[in-house]
Amino acid sequence: MTQPQTPPDPRRWRALIFICLAQLMVVLDGTVVNIALPHAQADLGFSDANRQWVITAYALAFGGLLLVGGRVSDMWGRRKAFITGLVGFAAASALGGAAVNTGMLMAARGLQGVFGALLAPAALSLLTVTFTDARERAKAFGVYGAISGGGAAIGLVLGGLLTEYLNWRWTLYINVAFAVIAVIGAVFEIREPAGGKHSGRLDVPGVLMASSGLAAIVYGFGRASTDGWSDTWTVACLVAAVVLLSGFAFWQTRAAEPLLPLRVVRNRNRGGAYLAIGLAVIGMFGVFLFMTFYLQVVLGYSPVVAGVAFLPMVVGMMIGSTQIGARLAVRVPPRLLMVPGLLTAAIGLVIMSQIKVDSSYAQIVLPGLFLMGLGMGTTFMPAMSLATHDVEHRDAGVASAMVNTSQQIGGAIGTALLNTIATSATTAYVVAHAHLITSSTAAESVKLHAMVHGFSIGIWWAVGALVLAAAIASVLITTGRLAAPEKTGEDEADFVPVMHGA
Question: What is the domain extent for residue 213?
């Protein structure tokens, strides 16, 4: 007979509030500044070339240091890493909000990425080891999955509201308020689980190769979206990324204390979850890019209205995560939630691919966004739980970091690859319809039709990414209902408590 597990932490539900608040802060910061960029540029006077670096500085530091942040949280203890990440993120945000020149703003964004890379894996691993009951863990991951997936859309809404009604600097200052609340909550409500800190040395060669390789791939794909795939620096960065990450993988088989123990990713179910998450985010981020331009440039929405227009996706994601994923996670295997969820999201994208210059928001965009959110929410909840399932306690931080890394790399690839495809389709449309350009009015009409045609083609490729993710989930993910390991002669603290059958 299985011995009873350690009683659950009575503060766990209050702790969830502050863990999710921290995750929301990190996720929305990837988009909340985007809408404020034109105002920041006018205020600080930086060039168009430097404008991209305000976004890129955050993405490079965050994406490049996630694995390091995950391993550091395993070594320091997750609660300490969580609080340190919050304080550092708040300080960096205050520095950015007070920026008096371009260099100060870019440095602040880079520091946000550094502390975000410590905070994000610490938050997920705290969630992983705090909730031990099957149904409770499903509910907690449902809320967390909705926040993680919908945070980018929330960032667009919040960025538009803050910029239009206050000042662009508040898109950074708002993080200070979030962080202060989360730190207070962490001090009083979050406790480090038993066995939560593990001694060891940091794998310095692994750190250098992983950080450089991940940063190179994020930068390379980001540059491809603006400078093209044949650009010298684009090619050099992507080649360097392949070499560095290949070297990192080889080194992990030789290192005494590897940064990313290969036991974490060799498990076919966890590996399938990481791949499915990355491919799903490729599709989702590409659509964010297209629909943001479609709503503002083609339909003429203001930044605030365009941000609010994404809310059906957030609503769908909340329903998918908390009402479908969380309720069914203890009853069915993850694959039976992830595959239908990914295909539902794909159907939503198929609807959005039908956009025209004069399309109705209510008939095309709204149902498409809602179905995409519903499908993504149903997918992310079991995928995130599976990605940290049955992993050794000492690896919980780095396993959590892999979830964030999959999202970050997927976002970089999706934005670059789908933007390139859409741009090429737009150019081809203009060339094919050049004979129609007989006046300035006709030229504008062809331009808008070409842009929408390019968006539609890009969305179809996003559909392909989601269908591929569904295929991978159906083949690689073979586990049944997620079950907690029974206690044996080994120390119970050596394992992350995971979901067990009803």
Answer: 203-258
